[in-house]
Amino acid sequence: MKRLIKKSLYKIFVSLFVIFYSFLPQTIVIGQVIDEYSQDNVAPIEEEIIPEESLPQEEVVLPEEETPPVVEEPLVEKPVVNEVVFEEPVIEKPTVEPVEVIKEVMSLPATWVLNGDSATTYDVVKLGKTYIAPQNSRVRVIFTKLPENPTKLTIEEITLTQEEIEATGAVSDMAYDIKTDMIDGTFEYDLVLPSIEEETKVVYAEERKDILTDIKEVTNEIVNEKDILKIEDIDHFTIFIVTGIWPTTSNNSIVDGEGSSQIRWPSGSSTQSGLGFVGKSGLILADLINGQEFILGDLTHYNHPVYSSIVWADLKITLGSPLSKDFTFKVQIDETTNTNNVRNCNSGFQRTDTPCDDKVTFPNSISDQIVTIGGVEYTLIIDGFKRTVEGNTIASFITEEYKDNTASLVGHFVPIGRIIVDKVTDPAGDTQLFTFTTGGEGYKGFTLKDSDTPNSQVLPAGKTYSVNETIPAGWHQTSAICTSSITGENETITALELDAGETITCTFTNTKKTDISITKTDSPDPVNNGGTLTYTLTVNNLSTIPAVNVIVKDTLPTGFSISSVTPSVGNCLDKIASDIQCELGTLAGNTSATVTIVGTVSTTSATISNSATVSTDTPETLTTNNNDSEDTTVNQKGHIIVQKITVPAGDQTVFTTKLTDINGIVIATGTISDSTDYIYDIDAGTYKIIEDVPSGWGATSNPCLNGVTVAAGETKTCIIENKRLPILTIEKVIVGDFVPFSNFSFKVDGVNPTAFESDGNNNIYVVPGQAYAITEVDPGSNYSVSYSSGCLGNLTYEQTATCTITNTKLGSISGTKWEDMNGDGNKDDQDLPILGWVINLDKDADGSIDQTTTTDNNGVYTFSNLLPGTFKVIENTPSSSWNVSFPSAGVNYYTGIILTAGANLTGYDFGNYENGQIKGYKWEDVDGDG
């Protein structure tokens, strides 16, 4: 369509009252509408018939005398007597109908069947003919494209309501309803309407009710020619027919009518149940792709008592031209056993009083077929059933026995996307079948093997789906990666957010598992203590799948000292603690490798046990054969068992013991902790057990310190007791300052100054039973020092104590003394400081003077190095000739001064003024000369 670009002062209002089965337009309302300009510019259009002399001269052929049959159409409420009239001749006007469009101009008068205000063509319409409304010759329709089976045209003159006139601004209440019941095809036509010679604008509404709310503009090119306007090439709707057949059922052998629109069962029975489908005619394609549900047709369940039945039937729904597309759905019939009493109906869905109701459903309501409309792919979804057109859509159609039950079948089109799942196996081409589970409405589960075509399913867009696989025994999922055809979209198998037109491809890669095992042998067994022992580890690949990155680990037993380790393939790392690790690389299927470990046995145990494990990066079907152990009997020597007892019990401090000969030469060492043993394997002889005592501990008992004699094969026990030394915690507290604790130091018994830790807490061991004294290194004159009782004491084993050293930051109180020259209680520029004035300090305001000071040259006094407390500052008044003016008249003190730690308080000033004198001399003026 072309939009008229010239500005229009006037516009013609066209409203299309669309109903479901007809093409554009069904109703055209014509009236003059003024734009936002003043109505003074409006020239109303009068509905008058064009005078015959105004038409071009042309031969007019009158209709024959015979009157065609009258056809009644109840288009108005009041009864009207029908009559057949002959319209004025339909004439060709080249200025109105272009020659290239009109193939044949009607030369005979068009015959109309009149029914009140309505007129219907007697014959079906033809391509290229001009149909002139008998009510107004300026209303004309010319069809330029028709379907295979065109029908008649009806034009009805109607009247707009006052509300419609006011809503649209129309200045005329006359309108015309132009409609046809043609179906199954695409239509194009030219439309001629009354107009004035001014340029016009055309708008429309698709239903009459939309005149008040949804006015739209016609964008086709509009041609104005004197008193008419012409809109060319209107192609608004495409409509078609829905049909449906039943191609197959769950038991075709008992069904009549497969492949038709109605099936019955059981075959040959006088009483039959069945299913039927009658499709809807005249569906408008433009109405179907807006996501709204529409009625596909009527589904009937012929529900009657039968001796055998089916449980499902396929319904193939065909949408006619222009779609010509089949959509097949499975219809499920839940048949119930009939009884004589409705109370015996136990299906759970009984809704009528007739025993017993059946149920019809669509278990798979989403089609896997697609149709492309306007470049967008759609699929059809069955929403359910409607018992009435205005009723709610229901998922299940409950049908009454002994009755033919009919409901409308409802569906809607949705844009679709695709989810493609591919299977890749290692080794490639393996025939293992994998089962996939899916999530999301309509997404069906499936199976795949490596050689299969990827599973591709068409699904409604705008929804989230998921897919995963059940991993068979002997397989491992290597990866599951999903990619989108839309750049920037990130998809995972648990959240596939499918957009319209999107294709999501998920590739599941699985690796077949291998199976490796390990066996261990020892030689000789038994072995003499101190002798050589050889372990042989054999790794076998029991499968055909190569095992990648095969690693053998052997945890060597205590008392076994390794001499060498030799692999048949790969390499072995050095011994790590008591572990050996050998990397054998890739072990091919049905092959083996060995690791040989040689070492010396030195243990007090009668048996030593050695364990080894094997692993691979390739997933395995079985892992219980990935480890093996071997026990070896050891012929023992003599033993010294060293046991540890700690006080307090249970302490896990590690103690180092040494086995020496009688001369103190170290033979072996060992470590033990409380309640554990260490065993020395020895030849017959005399030995000593000595111990390195850790810090914080004291040795209180060691019976083997001076020697113990052990015979061959004999076992002796040495119990060594250790007690924990007393612990003194030295705690630093600083009041009124925020300096680091490490700025302060302390001494133990007056020696060895030690700085405090950063947290202010130091732990030291003191000698059991010996007095100690903790003092602080002088912190400076700015701090006071106090000690808790724990700073002096005497501790025994296991005891603890805390010494708290507190430093309080000292503060000060100061002020200024001045002479208040004018005695006004204010320090003025002429007021001068007073030197040497005595100021007193009373701590706790108890009436006793604790400190005294005097003012300096600037009149300033200061009380320094004060601990926190409450103070009173008092000035001395040297004589009665001085008076106090500040802090207030007659008050020579400040009381209630609260000093916190480290605070320096100032501003405690005093002002005084001295009483003045007036002096004179009295004499006798003897000579009176003054």
From TrEMBL:
Report TM segments.
12-34
According to its record, what are the GO cellular component terms? extracellular region
DUF11 domain residues: 515-629
Localization terms from the record: Secreted
Statement: the UniProt record of this protein carries the keyword Secreted: yes
Xref: SUPFAM superfamilies: Hypothetical protein PA1324
Coiled coil regions in record: none
Q: Which residues form the SpaA-like prealbumin fold domain?
A: 420-512
Q: Which branch of life, at top level?
A: Bacteria
Gene3D superfamilies given in the database record: Collagen-binding surface protein Cna, B-type domain (2.60.40.1140), Immunoglobulins (2.60.40.10), Mu homology domain, subdomain B (2.60.40.1170)
InterPro entries per record: Chlamydia_OmcB, Choice_anch_K, DUF11_rpt, Ig-like_fold, OmcB-like_DUF11, Sdr_B, SpaA_PFL_dom_4
**Keyword Amino-acid biosynthesis among record annotations:** no
What broad class describes the main subcellular location of this protein?
secreted
Q: Which residues form the SD-repeat containing protein B domain?
A: 815-890
Keywords of the record: Membrane, Secreted, Signal, Transmembrane, Transmembrane helix
- Tell me which NCBIfam families the record gives: B_ant_repeat, choice_anch_K
Spell out the PANTHER family in the cross-references.
LARGE CYSTEINE-RICH PERIPLASMIC PROTEIN OMCB
* Name of the protein: DUF11 domain-containing protein
Taxonomic lineage per UniProt? Answer: Bacteria, Candidatus Dojkabacteria
